[in-house]
Amino acid sequence: MATTRKLLTLAMVRQGENILLGFKKKGFGQGKWNGFGGKVEMGETICQATIRELEEESGLIAKAMDKVAILEFEFLNDPVILEVHVYDIVKYEGEPIESDEMVPQWFPVNDIPYEKMWLDDLIWYPEYLKGSKFKAYFLYEGFDKILKHSISPVQELPL
Ligand SMILES: Nc1[nH]c(=O)nc2c1ncn2[C@H]1C[C@H](O)[C@@H](COP(=O)(O)OP(=O)(O)OP(=O)(O)O)O1
């Protein structure tokens, strides 16, 4: 089966012992808490898409960011591979505000609502919170079962 790749962004906003998550009101991942992001559009770089999606969904304006991970998601019997580029938002301006898509809320890093998040978050958030850079792969069956996964630290990630 020929595969197609979809490029997505995910912005992680952490302030010391707290992390900002958004409750997704609609679209892919509806009903789950997640970082902020979406599809990279034509003519846009991954960085530009990250900044745009963060502002659209949370109201925050990224001023400095650092790529921390590339996550690949495959779904059994689905030719589409999601390639999610994850950025740590090191500096931003503004205050979180509710958007059409997301309700933002701060959570202590030791009390992340994993039971209402993607299953894979339980696997890779700890790596992110440690400050590691990594690549990870997840094979899902439906949306509630991970059949296979791998996670490996890397020194550098492509921009
Ligand atoms: N398994 C997963 N774990 C995770 O933590 N984040 C994921 C994930 N799968 C996707 N994401 C993120 C990437 C991206 O930020 C977001 C999905 O964005 P999309 O733009 O595809 O969503 P929508 O269906 O709302 O898109 P639009 O139709 O463009 O509004 O969820």
UniProtKB/TrEMBL annotation:
This protein's UniProt keywords: Hydrolase, Magnesium, Metal-binding
Listed EC numbers: 3.6.1.56
Swiss-Prot/TrEMBL catalytic activity: 8-oxo-dATP + H2O = 8-oxo-dAMP + diphosphate + H(+); 2-oxo-ATP + H2O = 2-oxo-AMP + diphosphate + H(+); O(6)-methyl-dGTP + H2O = O(6)-methyl-dGMP + diphosphate + H(+); 8-oxo-dGTP + H2O = 8-oxo-dGMP + diphosphate + H(+)
A Pfam family hit: NUDIX
InterPro entries per the UniProt record, alphabetical: 8ODP, NUDIX_hydrolase-like_dom_sf, NUDIX_hydrolase_dom
GO CC field: cytoplasm
Subunit structure: Monomer.
Function: Oxidized purine nucleoside triphosphate hydrolase which is a prominent sanitizer of the oxidized nucleotide pool. Catalyzes the hydrolysis of 2-oxo-dATP (2-hydroxy-dATP) into 2-oxo-dAMP. Also has a significant hydrolase activity toward 2-oxo-ATP, 8-oxo-dGTP and 8-oxo-dATP. Through the hydrolysis of oxidized purine nucleoside triphosphates, prevents their incorporation into DNA and the subsequent transversions A:T to C:G and G:C to T:A. Also catalyzes the hydrolysis of methylated purine nucleoside triphosphate preventing their integration into DNA.
Listed name of the protein: Oxidized purine nucleoside triphosphate hydrolase
Source organism: Diploptera punctata (Pacific beetle cockroach)
